[in-house]
Design goal:
Elements lengths: L1 H34 L1 H10 L1 H30 L3 H37 L2 H23 L5 H12 L2 H18 L1
Length: about 180
């Protein structure tokens, strides 16, 4: 009994440490989704609703988990048994709710992206990305006479960040085709 009494707070601290690693990662991904044009332009243009959900859910869930970790530490420091038990129940309910909400949101986003990857729009986008590779040398050649092709080439380079997303979507799509 005495060993488990000392083990539980230590185990809770380790779980909170792992939660803080997750919180940090979620905040970094949320910040990158807001400020990195190579990520937010394709994501916002291809999946606007999913982008808005993820942009709101990631920092909100991370901050909620941060608050819950502080709640757990408060529960460990309190001497009143009834208050400690209540705080630990609130902590357990909050972490469980965050887990369910993040899993549900992730599954919803995955289903929407998977459905899009099988659509005609995805195939058309792959074709357009392949044509952009053929268009760049022509734009480089035309840039000797006018500055507009340079601007178009810059725009294509920004939009080609979509090519970073397409192999992942295609892999998910082909993996699902084998399963069904």
């Amino acid at each position: 009994m005495g060993c488990s009494r000392q083990l539980a707070p230590t185990l809770l601290l380790h779980v909170n440490l792992l939660l803080m690693v997750y919180v940090g990662a979620a905040l970094v991904v949320a910040a990158r989704a807001r400020w990195d044009p190579s990520l937010y332009i394709p994501a916002r243009e291809l999946f606007p609703r999913e982008f808005r959900v993820a942009a709101a859910l990631l920092p909100a869930a991370a901050l909620a988990l941060l608050a819950l970790a502080h709640l757990a530490l408060l529960a460990l420091r309190t001497r009143r048994l009834h208050l400690r038990r209540l705080l630990l129940y609130v902590y357990a309910a909050g972490v469980s709710s965050a887990l369910v909400a993040q899993t549900a949101a992730g599954a919803w986003v995955w289903a929407r992206v998977h459905a899009w990857a099988r659509s005609d729009a995805a195939h058309e986008l792959q074709r357009a990305a392949a044509l952009a590779d053929l268009l760049r040398p022509l734009l480089d050649h035309l840039a000797h006479w006018h500055p507009l092709p340079d601007k178009l080439n810059d725009l294509i380079q920004v939009c080609c960040a979509i090519q970073n997303v397409l192999p992942v979507i295609t892999h998910v799509n082909t993996g699902m085709n084998r399963d069904t």
